[in-house]
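Lecture notes, part 5. Sequence design as translation. It can be helpful to think of inverse folding as translation between two languages: the language of shapes and the language of residues. The source text, in structure tokens, appears below.
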């Protein structure tokens, strides 16, 4: 307990799913949480209430993180509320499938907007503050598709691969200033997405993983906490994969 005492974490897409679980886990370790969300207002309220009821500190900030002005507004408001941002988790994402021949340009663009453009905008917005303080942790939420590729997910595979490349480049750029940039690359995690999948498909996924099981939220949280805490102070530019052995970077 207390690995993140005194830290402030801005987590995009933390009104639901992995982002919400991560926000609660970070708060349990002492971090104050800036809950970023766009349309899931009820979920954001629940995340904040859950953290506060447990004795933590949290505030929600609404905005479309694919729009520069909106991102700048979220970061400015978070800094005004908490006075600092030590950790940025670029978590907001989108999942949908489409064969390439049927894929609309809008579908492709939306995938890159929420994963790549938003990551760029949020990282750019917090970077002056981190550079001024000479410290910071940026965690980009990638996925195994970015390493292995996946049929019917060319857009998501390409976007996740771009996130890995961005992570490595930015780590080299800001490492001399004391800022760490890493990527988390989980495999399929039990949750809202898997709830709508057939048992046959889920079993086929399990057989792809050497550990023969799907990931749990706790598996991802443990890795995220490591990258956010002082335990990872000599780790940057890495692609950490809680993926049951599906990928071995």
């Amino acid at each position: 307990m207390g690995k993140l005492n005194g830290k402030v974490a801005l987590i995009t897409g933390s009104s639901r799913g992995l982002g919400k679980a991560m926000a609660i886990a970070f708060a349990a370790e002492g971090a104050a949480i800036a809950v970023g969300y766009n349309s899931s207002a009820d979920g954001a309220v629940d995340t904040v209430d859950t953290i506060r009821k447990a004795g933590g500190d949290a505030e929600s900030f609404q905005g479309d993180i694919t729009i520069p002005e909106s991102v700048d507004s979220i970061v400015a408001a978070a800094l005004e509320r908490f006075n600092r941002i030590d950790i940025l988790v670029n978590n907001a994402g989108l999942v949908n499938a489409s064969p390439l021949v049927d894929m609309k340009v809008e579908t492709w663009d939306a995938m890159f907007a929420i994963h790549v453009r938003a990551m760029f905008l949020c990282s750019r917005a917090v970077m002056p503050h981190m550079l001024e303080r000479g410290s910071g942790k940026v965690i980009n939420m990638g996925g195994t598709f970015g390493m292995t590729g996946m049929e019917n997910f060319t857009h998501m595979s390409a976007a996740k691969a771009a996130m890995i490349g961005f992570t490595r480049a930015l780590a080299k750029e800001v490492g001399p200033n004391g800022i760490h940039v890493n990527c988390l690359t989980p495999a399929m995690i039990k949750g809202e997405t898997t709830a709508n999948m057939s048992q046959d498909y889920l079993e086929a996924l399990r057989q792809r993983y050497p550990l023969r099981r799907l990931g749990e939220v706790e598996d991802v949280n443990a890795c995220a906490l490591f990258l956010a805490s002082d335990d990872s102070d000599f780790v940057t530019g890495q692609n950490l994969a809680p993926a049951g052995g599906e990928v071995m970077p």
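The translated text above is only one of many valid answers, since several sequences can fold into similar shapes. The longest helix spans residues 105-133.
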